[in-house]
């Protein structure tokens, strides 16, 4: 476990340890597996190598060099985050801490929010937390961020992400948020956070809990939509009364809480878990939003669920909930060309295929247009798939002369 934690980030707090983990069920308890590194999360030879260094009392420099070699093989920044998503101001140097992948939405990584109350073992942003400046993505340039949003009227939503922005105190987070309230074309401010699951005290008993909620009220009163993007990976995270009180207090500010999580092997890979989670969220006034597919980074091979199985889990959970929970979308892959949703498995012209579409895309023309991929029971990611039905390329790829990219135009009704 220590060898794995030398490569991947490990952090847990007293609330998770004392309130969420059933220690009688460990190591099979889902919350235990959610936060504590497992010995087989990484290739056996890599773990053995670092374990041997630890046993031999190797110096920190040697351990870091070995860990960095393993990290380099784990695709630390998937989906073009460092090269395709980073904008420039006036075609000059890239703007630090900002990603602008889709026209309408900007992601901002506040410097003080690039850690979490506890780390998820599956986290696709693990590279933010390993202490390597070359892998970290962050900025404290508030004016630069505000100016960029102001100068791009197509941007209607800013998402504060990390790490976890709610690790920041109210005095810090307000300095980032308040200047955005003056931008007329901005419609929504989103906060991506795991704090409701890992430290609900942030909204109930922490010294600045009331000030934070007043900041949320100020956002809503300004005419902006405050979307609180809450990460819940398992229904057990909703069990404590303190979480339910935190949810109630956040909702009372006028913020909308939308819930999302990836589908993770050994933690939430069964329909009953998702059914319970979505129904619990609806009961407490939250809006189920996304089931994600584990991204192609870090220990993906350990946590990933094949796409065919992921679709079955989603469909079986989806059919058991009411329409109020069917706001959820998935299974969704946040890949380089965009957010791709698996709509189903069917047979067309004698060929078994996946039916997919783009929820969001770098190229807006692709959004909402169905396409097909060959059925593959082992495929776990978009790039594991092959075009189907005679297509030579997928929609986001260059189509050779005389080729087909498999796009389908639906009739207008």
From TrEMBL:
InterPro entries: Aldolase_TIM, Lys_aminomutase/Glu_NH3_mut, rSAM, rSAM_sf. The keyword Iron-sulfur applies. One of its GO terms (molecular function) is catalytic activity. Residues 100-324 form the Radical SAM core domain. It comes from Nocardiopsis kunsanensis. Its cofactor is pyridoxal 5'-phosphate. This is L-lysine 2,3-aminomutase. The keyword S-adenosyl-L-methionine applies. It comes from the Bacteria. Keywords: 4Fe-4S, Iron, Iron-sulfur, Metal-binding, Pyridoxal phosphate, S-adenosyl-L-methionine.
């Amino acid at each position: 476990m220590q060898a794995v934690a030398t490569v991947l980030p490990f952090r847990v707090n007293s609330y998770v340890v004392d309130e969420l983990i059933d220690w009688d069920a460990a190591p099979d308890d889902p919350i235990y597996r959610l936060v504590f590194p497992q010995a087989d999360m990484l290739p056996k030879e890599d773990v053995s190598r670092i374990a041997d260094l630890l046993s031999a009392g190797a110096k920190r420099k040697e351990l870091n060099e070995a860990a960095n070699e393993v990290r380099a093989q784990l695709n630390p920044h998937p989906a073009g985050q460092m090269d395709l998503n980073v904008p420039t101001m006036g075609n000059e140097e890239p703007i630090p801490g900002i990603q602008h992948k889709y026209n309408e939405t900007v992601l901002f990584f506040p410097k003080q929010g690039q850690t979490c109350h506890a780390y998820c073992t599956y986290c696709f942003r693990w590279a933010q937390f390993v202490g390597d400046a070359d892998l970290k993505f962050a900025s404290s340039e508030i004016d630069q961020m505000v100016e960029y949003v102001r100068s791009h009227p197509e941007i209607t939503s800013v998402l504060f992400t990390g790490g976890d922005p709610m690790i920041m105190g109210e005095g810090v987070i307000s300095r980032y948020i308040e200047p955005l309230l003056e931008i007329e074309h901005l419609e929504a401010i989103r906060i991506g956070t795991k704090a409701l699951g890992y430290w609900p005290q942030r909204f109930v008993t922490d010294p600045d809990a009331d000030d934070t909620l007043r900041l949320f009220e100020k956002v809503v009163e300004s005419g902006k939509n405050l979307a609180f993007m809450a990460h819940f990976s398992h229904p057990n995270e909703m069990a404590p009364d303190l979480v339910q009180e935190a949810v109630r207090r956040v909702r009372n500010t006028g913020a909308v809480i939308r819930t999302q999580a990836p589908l993770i092997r050994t933690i939430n890979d069964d329909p009953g878990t998702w059914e319970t989670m979505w129904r619990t969220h609806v009961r407490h006034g939250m809006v189920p939003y996304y089931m994600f597919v584990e991204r192609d980074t870090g220990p993906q091979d350990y946590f990933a669920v094949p796409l065919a199985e992921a679709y079955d889990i989603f469909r079986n959970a989806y059919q058991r909930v009411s329409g109020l929970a069917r706001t959820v979308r998935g299974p969704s892959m946040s890949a380089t060309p965009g957010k791709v949703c698996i709509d189903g498995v069917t047979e067309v012209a004698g060929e078994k295929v996946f039916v997919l579409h783009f929820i969001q895309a770098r190229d807006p023309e692709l959004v909402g247009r169905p396409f097909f991929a060959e059925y593959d029971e082992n495929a776990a990611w978009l790039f594991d798939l092959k075009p189907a039905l005679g297509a030579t390329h997928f929609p986001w790829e260059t189509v050779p002369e005389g080729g087909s990219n498999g796009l389908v135009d639906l009739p207008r009704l």
